[in-house]
Amino acid sequence: MRVRAVVFDWSGVLTESPLSGLHRYAAESDLEENALDRYVRGDEEFAKVERGESSVKDFLRGTCIRIREDHGVEVDIRRLAAAMADTRTLRPAMIELIEELSGRYTLAVLTNNVVENRDHLATTLPLEHFAFILNSADVGVRKPDPEIYRELLRRLDCAGSEVVYIDDFAENLAPAADLGMTTIEFTEPAELRERLAELGVA
């Protein structure tokens, strides 16, 4: 296999886990650590935001109501927004890896994200190392819908067998593998380096 492109998920791979801020806020609100996860992961209302069909503000308003109805807890909308946003800091070890791979491979980001984060992505990521950022909210389709992976390959101008795709959610890897991509489930940067080295990507 000749690898031409390496594609990274953003939240949870280049940054801290997207759920960690919610875990901290749940603890502050006397809820179980993962009580707020379901309002983001696998939630159809949040999926609408990630497809660009709804705004973050509308999602937050509705989620505060749902949390109150489900748990009897009054959630501050600003604190909930902050909890969802405070996991956006890039991992230094991942930036080092990107700098090492840049110029040797085509690098890209494939992210389930929101319209409101477009500027943040553009100003935070070292864009000089990436061919493009494929944001679900910009194309109206999100992982794990196979269409977004097909769009990724079209933009890369690569066959699936020439691409390594890295994501921290296992459900987002299977459709990429179905298109021939080599997939890596991310846990931490050191292990990722080992997996890439096994593939001859170093």
**Spatial extent as radius of gyration:** 17 Å
Count of helix runs: 11
- The secondary-structure class comes to alpha/beta
Helix content: 40-55%
Beta strand count: 5
Shape descriptor: globular
What is the string of helix and strand elements? EHHHHHHEHEHHEHEH
> Averaged pLDDT, please?
95
Strand content: 5-15%
Poorly predicted regions:
none
The span between the termini is 14 Å
Keywords:
46% helix, five-stranded parallel β-sheet, alpha/beta, single chain, 202 residues, 5 strands
How do the helices and strands line up, and which of them pair or pack?
Layout lengths: L4 E4 L1 H5 L5 H9 L15 H7 L5 H16 L5 H9 L6 H10 L4 E6 L6 H7 L7 E4 H4 L6 H11 L6 E5 L6 H5 L3 E4 L3 H10 L4
Parallel strand pairs: 1-2, 1-4, 2-3, 4-5
Helix pairs in contact: 2-5
Short description:
The protein is of the alpha/beta class and 202 residues long. It has helices at 10-14, 20-28, 44-50, 56-71, 77-85, 92-101, 118-124, 136-139, 146-156, 174-178, 189-198, and strands at 5-8, 106-111, 132-135, 163-167, 182-185.
Give a description of the structure.
The structure is a single chain. 46% of the residues lie in helices and 11% in strands. The chain has a five-stranded parallel β-sheet with strand order 3-2-1-4-5. It is of the alpha/beta class. It is globular, with a radius of gyration of 17 Å. The model has no long low-confidence stretch (mean pLDDT 95). It is built from eleven helices and five strands. The longest helix has 16 residues.
